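Q: Hi! First time doing this. I have a protein sequence and I read that you can turn it into a structure. Is that right? Here it is:
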Amino acid sequence: MSRPPIEDIQTGAEFNRWYWLKVELVDLCKRMHLPSTGSKFLLRDRIMYALDHNGEVMPEAKNRTISKFNWAKEVLTRETLITDNVTFGQNFRRFMKGQVGEKFSFHTDFMDWVKNHQGSTLGDAVEHWYSLEEQKKDPDFRNEIADHNMYNQYTRDFLEDNPTLLPADARKYWLLKKGLPTEDGFVRYVPSDLDL
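A: Yes, that's right. Below is the predicted 3D structure, encoded as structure tokens:
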């Protein structure tokens, strides 16, 4: 069974069984007159809601941002408190590079820590960045792959289960698998993928 044309899908449940590229979701949102910005998962949820509610637009969650701190323009110091509206733009990057040097780069583990530690200081964030870098030296260290990076997670799992195969093999099976239906729209590696 191959993925049906997006226009032929009538329910949110059926839509959710298939893997969709973000560009496809944006295009469909525009054609359905739905908001077309946001994460891939938010776009998917909007489409599923509209399919199940006669084309209605999904109510947006209330924005709970309380802080008025402007992360793009304020002078950042080690004493700056992390607020609920923290952003990781050029000002934040400049501050971090000033603290740890040109080797600084954003990664999911660090950004997740910052977002989940409102009330901590940027000095605490700098120290946590160093501790994450130290963890990377451990040969058993594995950073977490975010849910939306299904291809990266699939590739990691595929290669760990099949150490004699190559990333090109993982890609081949990924391309086959993403065209098949799933229970939840997530493409995950399982050993039987080699039978595809």
